[in-house]
Amino acid sequence: MNSVIRQQRALITGASSGIGKETALAFAKAGINLVLIGRDQQKLATVAAMAADLGVSAQAYPLDLADIPEVAPNIAKIAQESGPIDILINNAGMGYTNSLADTPLSDWQRVIDLNLTSVYQCVQGILPAMRQQGGGTIINVSSIAADNFFPDWGAYSVSKAGLVAFSRILAIEERANAIRITIIIPGAVNTPIWDSDSVKADFDRSAMLTPDIIAQAILQAVLLPKQAVVETMTIMPSAGAL
């Protein structure tokens, strides 16, 4: 199996830390070549070097997915430079807390742009080549906030619920092209998202899932035989929701 997997190449967004970083390393251990996307060039280069040490090709491309008009053409260009992309992991996103009444329009648009619209643009950038090569796998990382509603998480929940709807429609539309779509729905994961200025929340991070757990779930979905697909995978802390 490993000889077949070794020929595959995955493009991972948000690859410089958290779930993206751990997914890159899990894929590298499985022999999957990597194209890594992230904003932090130095952190991205470090992850690429760690992956290369595991014996795979790992290319790093600094890219700000918040620059929406440039996402699809940049992703298409990167895919053309790197070679065929068999797997697309849409992981990049941001956390945000504020009541809906107090959420400025600019913040609302920023959350929707990064968590939803940038995914749509990454997919548009990669789909033509993926169709041409006869198939592929797209994994979109959502959140339990898509279907479990918490006060002050309105903009974030809407963005993640939209991502679920987008993914399910995409799955139907691309089935004939042998492109599998998987939605990963994690509970709380201990990532740098909790340290960001846009999130004001006080949870017990020791009770959260760790990024490597989500990475292993993503890898399992990718390694399924091509005639099978995990449509939706929910991964929760065994202690339940925080």
From TrEMBL:
<dbReference type="InterPro" id="IPR002347">
    <property type="entry name" value="SDR_fam"/>
</dbReference>
<dbReference type="InterPro" id="IPR020904">
    <property type="entry name" value="Sc_DH/Rdtase_CS"/>
</dbReference>
<dbReference type="Pfam" id="PF00106">
    <property type="entry name" value="adh_short"/>
</dbReference>
<keyword id="KW-0560">Oxidoreductase</keyword>
<comment type="similarity">
    <text>Belongs to the short-chain dehydrogenases/reductases (SDR) family.</text>
</comment>
<protein>
    <recommendedName>
        <fullName>Sepiapterin reductase</fullName>
    </recommendedName>
</protein>
<dbReference type="InterPro" id="IPR036291">
    <property type="entry name" value="NAD(P)-bd_dom_sf"/>
</dbReference>
<dbReference type="GO" id="GO:0016491">
    <property type="term" value="F:oxidoreductase activity"/>
</dbReference>
<dbReference type="GO" id="GO:0016020">
    <property type="term" value="C:membrane"/>
</dbReference>
